[in-house]
Amino acid sequence: EVYFKNLSKQKQKEVMEKNGNNHKLRVCVATCNRADYSKLAPIMFGIKAEPQFFELDVVVLGSHLIDDYGNTYRMIEQDDFDIHTRLHTIVRGEDEAAMVESVGLALVKLPDVLNRLKPDIMIVHGDRFDALALATSAALMNIRILHIEGGEVSGTIDDSIRHAITKLAHYHVCCTRSAEQHLIAMCEDHDRILLAGCPSYDKLLSAKNKDYMSIIRVWLGEDVKTRDYIVALQHPVTTDIKHSIKMFELTLDALISFNKRTLVLFPNVDAGSKEMVRVMRKKGIEHHPNFRAVKHVPFDQFIQLVAHAGCMIGNSSCGVREVGAFGTPVINLGTRQTGRETGENVLHVRDADTQDKILHALQLQFGKQYPCSKIYGDGNAVPRILKFLKSIDLKEPLQKKFCFPPVKDNISQDIDHILETQSALAVDLGGTNLRVAIVSMKGEIVKKYTQLNPKTYEDRLALILKMCIEAASEAVNVNCRILGVGISTGGRVNPREGIVLHSTKLIQEWSSVDLRTPISDALHLPVWVDNDGNCAALAERKFGHGKGIENFVTLITGTGIGGGIVHQHELIHGSSFCAAELGHIVVSLDGPDCLCGSQGCIEAYASGIALQREAKKLHDDDLLLVEGMSMKEEEIVSAAHLIQAAKLGNTKAESILRTAGTALGLGVVNILHTVNPSLVILSGVLANHYVSAVKDVINRQALSSVKTVDVVVSNLADPALLGAASLVLDYTTRRIY
User: Fold this and answer.
1) What is the pTM assigned to this prediction?
2) CB neighbours of 359 closer than 8 A, spacing ≥ 6?
3) At CB < 8 A and 24+ separation, what contacts does 585-588 make?
4) How confident is the model at residue 109, as a pLDDT?
5) According to the annotation, is 603 in a ligand binding site?
6) 455-480 burial by CB neighbour count: b if 16+ within 10 A, else e?
7) d(CA 693, CA 687)
8) Known CDD domains for this protein (predicted)?
9) What SS3 class is residue 577?
10) Could you give the 3-state DSSP secondary structure of residue 634?
C-alpha cells in the first residue's frame, strides 16, 4: 500500500514538474445559485483539502446575492470558503429581457475579475444563463474551462445553453453514459471527457443514516412524521411562461386538496418567477397551516428532507436526479425535465393541465418507497475529478480540437485512459450453491464468489448481502462500475416487484420473499429478479446463440428442468409469471412422480434428480457398476455414475438415458407445436447427452413444418450468472425490458 501511494505521488509530481517548477494549479470556481453550489461544493472541498496541488479562488454571482432568494452566499461562508469576489449581476424584472441584461452585466464585470485572478482553469457548472456568461468570458480570455454536467438533455432554454457551454469548454465531466455519448456525438475530444458521476452523490449516498428528525421538525413542525409530508419545488419554464404559471397554480390547488403538510421552496430567478411568487401569495400559501414556504434550505438539510418525504413534486432537476438516490417518490410536472434519465421512482405528468391529474398523481405516488437509483453517480465523483484536474498539462495547446465523424468506438476513459468497465453484480441462487459474480458488459465474468446456499431465509439473505457488498467493494479494485444487481433464482418470480412468489423444493423457506427492497437499500443500487430459466434465455439473447434471433426457446437440463421462451425478441412471463415452466410439460400419463406433485413430467424423467434416482435403483440391485468403474464406500450415487456406466456399455443405464432423452424430445416437440421457435438451445450439464436424442424425436414425431428447427447446445459457461447480469445490462443501456 505504501509503495502504491508513493508511486501515485511520484506520478503527480511528474505532472506538476511538466507544468513548470512545481506549479500549483490555480482553479477558479464560480457559483451562481443554490443549486449549482450543491454540485460544486464537494469539488471545492476536495480542492481545498489538497493545497499542495491546487489554489482555490471562489467567485460568487447571480441569485446568491439577492435577499429574495435567501442570500445563499452565506452558506458558502459557513462552509469556511473565502469568497474572493462578489459580483451583483442579476437585473431584476424576472422576465426574458432581464435574463438577457443579466448575462450582459456579467460579461461587463467578469473580465476585470479574471484579469486579477489569472486562473489556470475555471470550473463552470450546468446550464444556467449565468454560467453561459462565465464560459463566454473565460473562453475569450484564453482560460481553460472545465464544464460539469454537460451532455445531458432536458426541456426549456437550458438545453441550448448547456450545449453552448459544451462547445466553449475544454474539458468535460459528465454524470451518465448517455451524456458521455451525447458529448462524443457533439464532436468533443474523447480524451477530454471524464465519466465521473454527479459530485452531489458523494454526499447523498452517505447522508440518509444521519439524524434527520430534528431537521424535519425545524422546517415542517413538531407533529410531522417521516413519509408523511411533501416537498414541492417548481420553477418557471422560460419557453412557455404562461403555461408554467398556470401549472403552478394547479399544483398548489392539488396540494391544498391533498391536505398533507408541504414544504414549498420559492422558484429560481428565471423569467416568470415573480408571477409564480404572486400565485403563492394569492393563495395564501405562506400563512396556510399545512404549508411552510421558504426561500432556501441548506443542502445538507434539504437532502434529509427529501430522503424522508412521502413525495416530492415539481419540475426541478433535483427531483429526477438526486432524489432517486433515496427511492423517494417523485412527480415530475410538465416538460422542463423532458429527456432526463430517471429512476423508476419518477412519475411523469407531461401535460399537467388539470388539478385532477396532479391530484391523482399524488394519490398514486405518496408514501411509496422505490429502490434506490444510482443512475447519476456512485459516490466517487470527486476523487475522479481531482485526479482529472491533476492530469491537465498546461503546456498543451489551448485551442480545442473537435473529433468529427467517424467517431471512435463507444468507450469511456478515465484520466489514465483505462476503461472503467460498466458491469453488473449477478447472483445465482441454486439448490446447492449461492454464487455472486461481477460481470462486464461483454459477458466476461471478472470475479466470482461461491458459498453453500444456507437452509434458512435469514441466513440466506444475510449471506447474499455480505457477498454482494464484498463484490461491490472489489469492483473498484478491478476497475468496474456496478450498474445494478441481477438475481437468478429457482421458483416462480414476479419480476416487476422483485418478489419470489413460490420456490422449488430444492430451496427451502423461499416463498413470498421480497428480494429487491433489502438488497437495494443496502447497496444503493437498482435490483432485478427473475426465474433461473428466464435468466438462461436472457443470457442466450445477449451473449449466446439467441443473439439477434427473434423467436427461440432455451431448455436448462440440470438438477431440475427449466427454461425460457423469447418471442419477437421479448421474454414471455405469462399472466401469473408461470410461462416457460418447461420441465413440467407432461409427456406420460402414468410416468414417475415429479417434485411438483404431478406425474410424467419431463423433469421426472430427464433431470439430474431423476437420473440420480434411477442410478440408485440400479446400484441397490448391483446393476450399476460395470468393468472400468469403481466407487468408494462412502461415495454418493449420482447421475454422473449413470452416464459413465452407459458409456462403458451398461445396457440398463443406456436404456434409462434413452428414455430420458425421448421424454425431453417429446417435450420439445410440444414446444415446437405451441410457439414455433426457429431455434432450440439446450443448456446445462446434461445438454450434450441429450442433443442427439432430441433431434431424433423431432425427426420422428414433429410436424414436417417444424422439423427444420435448429437444436444446438449452449456455448455459455455460466448462463445463470450471465442471465442475471443481462437483467441489469439490458435495462441500464436503455433496452426496453
Assistant:
1) 0.54
2) 254, 257, 258
3) 585/667, 585/670, 585/671, 587/663, 587/666, 587/667, 587/670, 588/663
4) 96
5) yes
6) eeeeebbebbeebbeebbeebeeeeb
7) 10
8) ASKHA_NBD_ROK_GNE (cd24060), GTB_UDP-GlcNAc_2-Epimerase (cd03786)
9) coil
10) coil
* 318 annotated to bind ligand: no
Asked whether the beta carbons of 143 and 122 are under 8 A apart, the reply is yes
What percent of the chain is predicted at pLDDT more than 70?
Answer: 93
Q: Which three cell numbers stand for residue 137?
A: 468570458
Separation CA 552–CA 677 (nearest Å): 5
CA distance 483 to 583: 33
Pull the grid cell for residue 734. Answer: 436503455
H or E segment and range at residue 604: helix 602-606
Whether residue 532 lies in the annotated active site: yes
Alpha-carbon span 705 to 269, nearest angstrom: 69
281's CB contacts (< 8 A; 6+ apart) are none
CATH superfamily of 545-715: ATPase, nucleotide binding domain (3.30.420.40)
Contacts of 373 (CB under 8 A, 6+ apart): 324, 325, 327, 343, 344, 345, 526
Look at the domain 414-544 and name its fold.
Nucleotidyltransferase; domain 5 (3.30.420)
- The residue whose grid cell reads 470550473 is 123
> Does the domain spanning 21-198+381-391 belong to CATH 3.40.50.2000?
yes
> How many whole angstroms separate alpha carbon 207 and alpha carbon 196?
20
355-365 vs 241-258: helix axis angle to the nearest 10? Answer: 50
Candidate CATH numbers 3.60.21.10, 3.40.30.10, 1.25.40.10, 3.40.50.2000; the one for domain 205-365:
3.40.50.2000
> Minimal CA–CA distance to 240: which of 338, 106, 360?
338
Is 594 one of the annotated binding-site residues? yes
Work out the end-to-end distance of the chain between its first and last CA atoms, rounded to an integer number of angstroms: 43
Contact 682, 712 (CB under 8 A): yes
Residue 584, annotated ligand binder?
yes
Residue 532 among known ligand-binding residues:
yes
Q: How far apart are CA 333 and CA 311, in angstroms?
A: 13
Is 492 annotated to bind ligand? yes
Residue of 28, 428, 17, 342 whose CA lies nearest to 154: 342
| Catalytic residue chosen out of the listed positions 95, 532, 718, 730 | 532
Q: How far apart are CA 462 and CA 442, in angstroms?
A: 30
* The three grid cell numbers given for residue 396, joined into one nine-digit string: 498543451
- Cell numbers placing 289: 397551516
Q: Is position 559 annotated in a ligand binding site?
A: no
Task: Please choose, from the candidates 448, 382, 391, the residue with its C-alpha nearest in 3D space to the C-alpha of residue 418.
Answer: 391
Torsion of CA 325, 330, 333, 334, to 10 degrees: 40
Under-50 pLDDT residues of the chain? 1-5, 21, 407-408, 410-419, 734-737
